[in-house]
Every structure is written in C-alpha cells, then in structure tokens.
Amino acid sequence: MPPGFTGFPNLTKLTLFHVGFPDGPRELEALISVSPLLEKLSLLFLEVPCSNDEYLQWAIQAPKLQYLLIDELRDYVWQTNDLPSLEEAQIHAAMYSTHRDFIKLMTGLERTKMLNITIPGWSDGSQVVNADDKFLNAQWVDGMFAKLHTVRMKNILCFSNEMHFVEFILSKARVLQVLSVCPMQ
Length: 185
Prior knowledge:
By secondary structure, this protein is an alpha/beta fold. The chain has helices at residues 25-33, 52-55, 102-108, 133-138, 160-172, and strands at 13-17, 40-44, 59-60, 67-72, 79-80, 88-93, 114-118, 150-156, 178-183. 24% of the residues are buried.
C-alpha cells in the first residue's frame, strides 16, 4: 500500500481476484483491517508470498463482516479473529499446510449461519486430528455454532479426521437443519 494510506472508511464490499501482495500477508491483513464497515469479502486466487513465520501471524479482522468467500489453490494459513456479524462463509481452499489448525479456524467462524466447505487435499495425511470424545468436549464453548443451520462439505474422502470434524459440528450446531457431505468423485 502507498505510504500514508489510511484505508477505505466507507468500503462495504471488497473482492480481490488474482491480486498480488508482494510484501506478504500482513499487507492483505492491513487492507482488510482499515476497512471498518466491510460487510462482504471475497478473496479469489491471490498471490501472497510468505515465509513460514508469516503464515502464523495474520488474521482476517472485520467486525461488520457478514459474508466471507475464500477460493484459493494454496493455503495461506489465514485465521479469523472474532467475526461477530458473520452470517455465511464459503471456503474453497487447500487446507493441507502443516501450519493449519482447522478446528481453530472453525472456532473463528462459529457465529455463521451457513458454512460451505470444499477442501482439496484435506485428507492428504499432513494434518492428523485425534478428535475423540475427550477432544470434542475440550473444544466446547457455550454458544459455539449456535446459529449454524447449514453445512455443506465437498470433496472429502471420509477419513477419520473428516468424520471427527463432522461429529464436532454435529455436537455444537444445535439448530442445524442441513448437513451435506459429498465425497470426492
């Protein structure tokens, strides 16, 4: 961003498609955070070079955000901070990084009503989640996914970590109306 850039104080919708952030993910994080009225964010096929340390240091912060779409072939290991207004999230992203804490990511999306997930590479073995009963109970937060009524998961291979994630959602989403799980074809 140019020196002295103060952000977009009135921006409500931001779509970034094939945009490069040569200085890394902190530049993208700053752009989002200086748009305090942002309600709709779409990140599509970005170019964000990062080192391993940078992967662990950036988050989507947008208190008015209602809709989030991420469609990425690479996992930039973005995280979400508290998104109190989020109603719908569509995640079409590779989640196979060794840095990815998928449960932590989902707890950042816990207030959403609708969650659509397509995860190529989800079950490549790089992330193993021992999501047994003890783990699921430890993840309990009062009101977690309290408004979630629709979950759609695509391209899963029905490995145990994926099934434990489904179990995790089922144990938290008390008003769930639609759960669609489609295996990879």
